[in-house]
Amino acid sequence: MSEIERRALMKGAALSALAFTVGGKEILLSPRQARAENIPFRTLTAQQGEILEALGETLVPGAAAAGIANFVDQQLSIPPEEALLEARILNIRPPFANFYRAALSAIDRASLASNDNRAFPQISPNERHDFVDQMRQNKITGWQGPPGPFVYLVMRSDAVDVVYGTMDGYSALGVPYMAHIAPTKRW
Amino acid sequence: MATPEKVDVVIVGAGASGSVFASVLAKAGKKVVLLETGPDWQPSDLISSDFWGRRVKPAGIPFLLEGKNPYGYAYQAGWGVGGAALHYFANFPRYLPNDFKVKSEHNRGLDWPISYADLAPYYDRVAQEIGVSGDAKAEEIWRPKGEPYPMPPMKTFRNGQVWVKGLESVGIRTVPAAVGMNSVQFKGRPACIYDGWCHVGCPIGALANPVITYLADARRAGADVRALCTVTRVLTNEAGTKVAGVEYFDAKKEKQVQEASVVILAAWAAQNPRLMLNSSTDKHPKGLANASGLLGKYMMAHYASGTWALFDEDVEPHMGTVGAQYMSYDRYDKTSKKGAFGSTYIVAGTALKTSDLGGFANARLDLFGQPLADFMQRAKRGITRLTAFGEEMPNIENRIELADGKDQFGMPLAKIVHSFDQDAVALWNANFEEGLTIAKATGAKEYWSARGNQPTIHLFGGTIMGREASDSITDSYGQTHEIPNLWVAGPGLFPTEGASNPTYTIFAVSQRGAEQLVSKWGTVAG
């Protein structure tokens, strides 16, 4: 691969850590580490990050600590041809941030409207579960945004990715990873 | 604008079909340039990870998706050298004789201008060239005799073996799946180690992707592969009787012209007609080679009816290859399912990862939260899947056409309009029903259909082959009827799609076309 392609594609292509910005410098961290170190979002607002984290945890237990919000945020900040998001293979047209912003806004509006003006992160776990179940079945009245079942699919995929799709995720589940070329970090 | 030296052949696209043409032509001494819109991937780029494996697929394409069943391209599409075959599953079933004569035999669909017998020697040649594992003799219960495969069948695992009894219970025989993988060392390439990462690209060369087979041969023979080069237009002479080369944007986004004696479009079944439509001139006002008006028409896709089963025993879901361990053509007759029409091709035994579209977290898409976590624990040892692929008949309304809006190079966007007809829906449903019957007979603890939106898998048509300029775009070799030095390659040539995985047939059709081009070079390029 030529140098221009390497620059065009990604730094550290063989790494599984992602480039996060800390103090104006880029450092390589796993999304879990980025979340633990409270790395600021690059693309999402803090409110959008909170919604995404609460949604991710509702979809797949462990997704919040695994850094779903930091993962998605970092991925939205890089060129789409470098992105590792499942959005890429779900036929979402770049820039992917447009989809995520629209989806998170739809969730926010719908939660406020149906939960006594409480945002999604503020409602109880049971209420979140019911909300997601309604969204999954496209049953939320007045929903405005990408179709609820598709939002469910994309966000569920992201949550599955960060919890079950990493080498650590395989290890925790007890499934042999068996890499030919292993990601050099286990996130 | 720089104009590089004129070459013998410029090939648009370095995927499965383009790589075959490049190999045959370069080895015949032709000066070959391949222009590939994506990167020049190396085997060392193929990291075993569902995250990182997404990099070898396109991030958005310049197509709008319309119709009742919009074509879902991204999971199966290629971006970069090797194309989709960089990450294909390397299932290598053949088409059967009945695939070539659907119109003659059923007054449905279209006929190919060639028969199985015309293609059979090329299947055999491809098998010897790049390596196929399987049991050719066993397959002859469904097809004419041919040469044995160069390698014995692959290993099987419990996740495949558990389906055999259930399939037999409904009269479906199985044989070892033919695959483009090494069951033993082959031509210096190692044997498969059954780790189930085929779908993100095999970096060790056990799976025959074009980067380590045809494209490597082409490079050794002097072919020039230019990555990150996007062709926007095919250029013709003033009279419109010949093509003169292509216009493209290079890796620096600068416009270039590559002159060539022969142009071969091997971009993608959807991109080839887009390019030909965008290359219209006053001599070809409807697009190149489109006197018939059929350019971009008869797009087709496969669909799958999956059945999941969960066993108490450990079936080692993580072991094997992503393709198949067993295959069957026992439902391949076009009328094998009452109330439907089209072939069904059945495979069993696939390695499963946790995440991504094919991962077992998606086996129960309705589950989330703790129920999903509980399911993952149950499934990690006991889950397996059976898949029945179905055939769609060619429909002129399923098409590619230029659309409003332009891409980053100023080229018009196109749209893919696709809807399944009633026969395809009926066959999809019938295959789900039979899948449940089969699963029940396996003794599985739980089983269920993998229902959702009817999927679109593979892509065919748009530049179909035929006998006359009035009913098709090219002849059976891929040479366009109207412009002798403009050729098309790939599954876009297929007038019908069969039901089995197409890449082996793509290789065989391309090998046949490339050899024909070499043999008549003087009349084509002169």
Overall description:
The complex is a heterodimer of chains A (187) and B (526). Chain A has helices at residues 3-9, 31-36, 46-59, 68-76, 96-114, 125-136, 148-164, 167-173; strands at residues 18-22, 25-29. In chain A, strand 1 (18-22) and strand 2 (25-29) form a beta hairpin. With 187 residues, chain A is mainly α. Helix content of chain A is 49%, strand content 5%. Chain A starts with a helix and ends in a 14-residue tail after the last helix. Chain A has a two-stranded antiparallel sheet. In chain B, the strands form 3 sheets. In chain B, strands 1, 2, 5, 6, 7, 8 and 17 form a 7-stranded mixed β-sheet that branches. In chain B, strands 4, 9, 10, 11, 12, 15 and 16 form a 7-stranded antiparallel β-sheet that branches. In chain B, strands 3-14-13 form a 3-stranded mixed β-sheet, with helices on one face. Chain B is an alpha/beta fold and 526 residues long. Helices cover 23% and strands 18% of the residues of chain B. The longest helix of chain B is centred in the last third of the chain and has 21 residues, at 422-442. Chains A and B meet through helix 1, helix 6, helix 7 and helix 8 of A and helix 2 and helix 9 of B.
What is the mean pLDDT of chain A?
89
Work out the strand percent of chain A. Answer: 5-15%
Ends apart, CA distance between termini of chain A: 26 Å
How large a portion of the residues of chain B is in β-strands, by DSSP E? 15-25%
Q: What is the chain-wise order of helices and strands of chain B?
A: EHEHEHHHHEHEEEEHEEEHEEEHEEEHH
* Strand runs of chain B, count: 17
Report the mean per-residue pLDDT of chain B as an integer.
97
Major protein interface: A-B, 55 and 55 residues
Number-wise, the strands of chain A total 2
Q: If helices are DSSP runs of H or I spanning 4 or more residues, what is the number of helices of chain B?
A: 12
Structural class of chain A: mainly alpha
CATH level-1 class of the largest domain in chain B: Alpha Beta
Order of helices and strands of chain A: HEEHHHHHHH
Principal-axis shape of chain A equals globular
CATH superfamily of the largest domain in chain B: FAD/NAD(P)-binding domain
Largest sheet of chain B: 7 strands, mixed
Q: Name the CATH architecture of the largest domain in chain B.
A: 3-Layer(bba) Sandwich
Structural class of chain B: alpha/beta
- As residue ranges, the low-confidence spans of chain B are none
